[in-house]
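Notes continue from the previous slide.

Worked example: a multi-chain complex. Inputs as given:
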Amino acid sequence: KQEVTQIPAALSVPEGENLVLNCSFTDSAIYNLQWFRQDPGKGLTSLLLIQSSQREQTSGRLNASLDKSSGRSTLYIAASQPGDSATYLCATSLSGGYNKLIFGAGTRLAVHP
Amino acid sequence: EPEVTQTPSHQVTQMGQEVILRCVPISNHLYFYWYRQILGQKVEFLVSFYNNEISEKSEIFDDQFSVERPDGSNFTLKIRSTKLEDSAMYFCASSVSSYEQYFGPGTRLTVT
């Protein structure tokens, strides 16, 4: 059974810092890995999708990497801004399934001016 | 940009009542999903739907739950007899083939 863990659970940083959010998963037979942003009481916004054959994806100030063999993914946020404050969720789908996503508990990020 | 929509945004119901949560997936998507998030907990998979039938369901998705795509655009989740523990945020998602899933804004269900 796939387990997804995110570390740290919470992070508070000053504006402008570069930061790394970590995601680990127990079953390396993933089909893809998706990073989401969730604002309080709101839905999930997809940030990046990494397919199992890929090593990384970039979108603006965000870069996500994937190491299937070690069961890890990282989300790198460059030059953080107060508007980046949110909870960041990592989710994986497994090969051979209908791509149900298994979520981690998230990292709650606060960027202060 | 196309997006997944959900109605209502908030539903309050009494224990034992039936509720129907509605979703309009992105129009060219073929795979549809329901997830839920109990306050303070992880997002959990409930069910996936493809080609007009359930393709996978979780242990949570018992006989009290059902899904339907009644008219080719809407995708609904029905809970026949709600329990207090059904109180959660329910998210609908859709995807093209096996790729990126797009989520709706959610319906907050409160069972009293």
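Summary box: Chain B touches chain A at residues 31, 33, 35, 41-45, 48, 50, 55-56, 58, 91, 95, 98-106, 108 (CB under 8 Å). Residues 85 and 98 of chain B are 31 Å apart (CA to CA).
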